[in-house]
Amino acid sequence: YLFSMLVALLAIPLEMLIETKMISTGIGVAFLLPTLAAGTRRLHDTGRPGYYLAIPLLAIPFYFLGSAIGGLALLLAMALLILLLCLPGHLGNNRYGPDPRLLTDSQVFE
Q1: Which 3 state secondary structure label does DSSP give 55?
Q2: pLDDT > 90: what percent of the chain?
Q3: Is the pLDDT higher at 16 or at 49?
Q4: Per DSSP, what are the bridge partners of residue 94?
Q5: pLDDT band at 106, cuts 50/70/90?
Q6: R_g of the chain computed on alpha carbons
């Protein structure tokens, strides 16, 4: 995630020079699947399903009530998702597999 943000920040001056938004769009598309995979893996570490990454989509219907209400709903949904991603993982195994903190290097890199 940090790498994608750094690449996006480096693309801003280039986009301003060329006067296009295609670079940011390409970066977003290129990093979409790895970001979803990392988020799903993190949610699995906490014992939650990966489809919780879709929580911000719940804000879409609120935009029909006005952009301010929709923006507030999106802010609250993003805050909830960030909270879920920052919670500590379960100790020991869960239904998604073994606890990676308890594995040795040889088991991790098999």
Answers
A1: helix
A2: 19
A3: 49
A4: 97
A5: low
A6: 18
pLDDT at 105 over 70: no
Q: Which residues contact 62 (CB under 8 A, 6 or more apart)?
A: 69, 70, 72, 73, 74
- Contact (CB, 8 A) for 77 and 55: yes
CA distances from residue 103 to 18, 38, 45, 70 in whole angstroms, order as listed: 48, 19, 13, 43
Per-residue DSSP letters for 21-51?
Answer: SHHHHHHHHHHHHHHHHHHHHHHHHTT--GG
pTM of the model: 0.70
Q: Would you state the structure tokens that stand for residue 37, as one six-digit string?
A: 């995979």
Closest of 87, 85, 103, 90 to residue 38, by C-alpha? 85
Question: How far, in Å, CA of 44 to CA of 53, rounded?
Answer: 11
In whole angstroms, give the CA distance from residue 69 to residue 84: 23
Distance CA 85, CA 80 (A): 9
DSSP state of 90: P
